[in-house]
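Quick note —
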Amino acid sequence: MNRRQFLVTAAGAAAPLLAVPRSQMGVATTCYMTVWRPRDTFEFMEHCIALGAGGIQTSLPFNDAASIKKLRDRLEPLGMYLEVMIGLPRDDGSAFEKTVLAAKEAGALCVRTACLGGRRYETFATLADWKKFVEGARAGVTRGLAICEKHRMPFALENHKDWTVDEMAALMKEFSSEYLGVCLDTGNNISLLDDPMDVVERLAPYAISTHLKDMGVESYKDGFLLSEMPMGEGFLDLKRVVQVIRAARPKTRITLEMITRNPLQIPCLTEKYWETFPNRSGRYLARTLAMVAARQRKQPLPRIDHLPKDAQLRLEDDNVKQCLHYGREQLSL
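Predicted structure written out below.
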């Protein structure tokens, strides 16, 4: 069963959702990065409309006027918001600028980017490699920010398993622009041994965009496992998380990023993991491992690789639906 067949089969089950009041919480296309992997912006948009989502965070693989108008004309009457995912600018930044202009014309609230596509502790083998990346990333942020300031487009930089909370907060203070902020991911920095609530409290004042998620942990021989969980099944205090973001940035939209996949390995007991963290003490490790021991579930974290493709598709979609329901019922979203 392919994705289109799955959507047709699921249409009947999704129909009752159309009667549900539209959520305030939007859905990021990365909720479907494991199985569906949507490439068609309009198909993704229509699916989120059927789910009752409050908005979408997605890429814009087009900049023609007709497609932009079609997108805006569909979202605005429903009161749905748009945030656009974009890569950091390369070379002269012309492609980046075209996307920013398309996003602005489509009515996007912001563009969201990340400096690193992978994970810091997996990507870099030496401190020198990390420092070289930092130099390039800062240059990319500088170019991107100049373009966003020119067009008055808010520019959200995600904490994407690259910058520690100390580093991200320092970047925000250094650039100090009303157009630069963060896409505040509530789970990613656990992998860097940051306390998740500390991350929220320190980055919320800069939150232009969000990735709201619940998290689960489990011990393994080289450190711990980390998983996104359907909301209410993890250990994050989501009510407090939303309250902190709302207090700091009342107008910032809350966007769901529920990624359905096998648990990620965080090998914090290996030497390689520590190569790019010269200033981190054992306090971070001890605190995080104590948290894992205290928060570990009795049941193993969910895994999906044993499931057939159609079951993976269904689970991925069901997890998003469950999170939207939880947001409405428990978080007033």
